[in-house]
């Protein structure tokens, strides 16, 4: 069996769902979704979900609940980055303001890509992202490990009637690309109630229904 893993840019994918009109699909079972895209001779080894805890306090309980649902599948591992406040200067008026920015996610994805290849954890790795900043890591991985396959999964908001609407450099840096289709996403939601391995029942947040 060919070993396959998915490495997800969590925030990038989250906002892709929103832009694609799939805000009602946040309660998404990633294991169920990605199993729809693997071949009969492939085994899904792991889903590495790279994310950060939102700095918006009122949203944190929903995010943490979703993470518990993901972990309950037994296939998802969470890798955390951080949020930091960044001071921005307006180019027009010169006034300053602060904005939260996500840090470490790109580095975490690159590390997971190389660490998994070195340890022979996978034969095929698929990055779920539209972030062109990952082109150098993807290109380097392909050069360093020519016996492995490296692909990208295109978020639904980056697909149109013509085809790929995507950072071409990212697609060109991969061995292959797949489209994540809205229909498949809608068919891959968790049930409203999930029984955890501990026996505790968790429920999809009301704002996500």
Average pLDDT over all residues: 90
What name does CATH use for the topology? Rossmann fold
- The first-level CATH class is given as Alpha Beta
Can you tell me the CATH architecture?
3-Layer(aba) Sandwich
Please give a handful of descriptors for the protein shown.
two-stranded antiparallel ribbon; 6-stranded parallel β-sheet; alpha/beta; 10 strands; Rossmann fold
Explain the overall architecture.
The protein is of the alpha/beta class and 209 residues long. It has a single domain (2-208), classed as Rossmann fold (3-Layer(aba) Sandwich). It contains seven helices and ten strands. The strands form three sheets. The chain has a six-stranded parallel β-sheet. A two-stranded antiparallel sheet has the order 4-5. Strands 9-10 form a two-stranded antiparallel sheet. Helix 3 links the parallel strand 2 and strand 3 (76-80). Residues 160-164 have low confidence and may be disordered.
Q: What is this structure's SSE topology?
A:
Blueprint: E1 2-9, H1 10-19, H2 30-35, E2 42-51, H3 60-72, E3 76-80, E4 82-89, E5 96-103, H4 105-118, E6 124-128, H5 135-144, E7 149-154, H6 168-172, E8 176-179, H7 182-186, E9 193-195, E10 201-203
Parallel strand pairs: 1-2, 1-6, 2-3, 6-7, 7-8
Antiparallel strand pairs: 4-5, 9-10
């Amino acid at each position: 069996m060919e070993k396959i893993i998915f490495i997800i840019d969590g925030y990038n994918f989250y906002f892709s769902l929103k832009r694609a009109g799939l805000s009602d699909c946040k309660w998404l079972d990633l294991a169920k979704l990605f199993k729809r895209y693997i071949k009969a001779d492939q085994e899904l080894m792991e889903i590495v979900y790279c994310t950060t805890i939102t700095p918006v306090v009122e949203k944190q309980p929903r995010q943490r609940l979703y993470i518990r649902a993901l972990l309950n599948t037994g296939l998802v591992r969470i890798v955390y980055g951080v949020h930091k406040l960044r001071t921005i200067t307006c180019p027009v008026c010169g006034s300053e303001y602060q904005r939260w920015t996500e840090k470490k996610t790109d580095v975490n994805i690159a590390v997971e890509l190389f660490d998994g290849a070195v340890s022979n954890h996978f034969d095929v790795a698929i990055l779920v992202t539209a972030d062109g900043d990952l082109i150098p890591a993807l290109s380097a991985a392909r050069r360093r490990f020519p016996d492995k396959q490296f692909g990208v999964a295109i978020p639904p908001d980056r697909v149109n009637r013509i085809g790929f609407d995507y950072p071409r450099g990212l697609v060109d840096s991969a061995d292959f690309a797949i489209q994540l289709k809205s229909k498949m996403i809608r068919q891959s939601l968790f049930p409203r109630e999930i029984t955890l391995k501990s026996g505790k029942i968790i429920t999809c947040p009301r704002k996500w229904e």
